[in-house]
Amino acid sequence: MTNYGNRKEISGRYFGISRFVQEKRSCKVVLDSLVVSDTYICDITFLEILTGCFTVEKREYTLNWLEVYGLLKYNEKISDKSIQLMKRYCIQRSGQPALRLADCLIAAFAIHYNMELLTFNKKDFEFIQGISIHPLSK
């Protein structure tokens, strides 16, 4: 990891950024804090990120920023993996949260493509077997 002043470069093949739109900060602040190389997002994450952009300025900034990422599209194999994950993790067990729909889909992409998942919400994914997580700090 290389530092660029207040920005961090995360190199390697990471999968995407999950659920940061629900943080108590703007998309722009989060997006500005990272310079990411060789990174992909799935169409689910793309849509989830846009749901946090409530102004034209944030939406335009976010769309421009997202253009640098490769976009992975949902397919039948990811659908099958999502169903397997939901069947296994849909209920809460011994202190673990139940898997939510968007997180299930994002996890299925990461597992299917064998990519590390970049996330601010490690707890939403750490109980899933077969997933590799790279936690981001808030």
Query: Strands of the largest sheet, in order across it?
Result: 1-2-4
Distance between the termini: 17 Å
Number of helices: 5
Q: Give Rg in angstroms.
A: 15 Å
Helix content: 25-40%
Order of helices and strands: EEEHEEHHEHHEE
Average pLDDT: 76
Shape descriptor reads globular
Q: CATH topology, which one?
A: Rossmann fold
- CATH first level: Alpha Beta
Strand content: 15-25%
The poorly predicted ranges are 1-15, 18-26
| Largest sheet report | 3 strands, mixed
Explain this structure.
By secondary structure, the protein is an alpha/beta fold. It has a single domain (2-135), classed as 3-Layer(aba) Sandwich (Rossmann fold). Helices cover 37% and strands 20% of the residues. It contains 5 helices and 8 strands, in the order E-E-E-H-E-E-H-H-E-H-H-E-E. A 3-stranded mixed β-sheet has the order 1-2-4. A 3-stranded parallel β-sheet has the order 3-7-8. A hairpin with a 2-residue loop joins strand 1 and strand 2 (7-10). Helix 4 (76-89) packs across helix 5. The protein is globular and about 40 Å long. It starts with a strand and ends with a strand.
Q: How is the secondary structure organized here?
A:
Elements: E1 2-4, E2 7-10, E3 14-18, H1 27-32, E4 34-36, E5 40-42, H2 43-50, H3 56-66, E6 70-72, H4 76-89, H5 101-112, E7 116-119, E8 133-135
Parallel strand pairs: 2-4, 3-7, 5-6, 7-8
Antiparallel strand pairs: 1-2
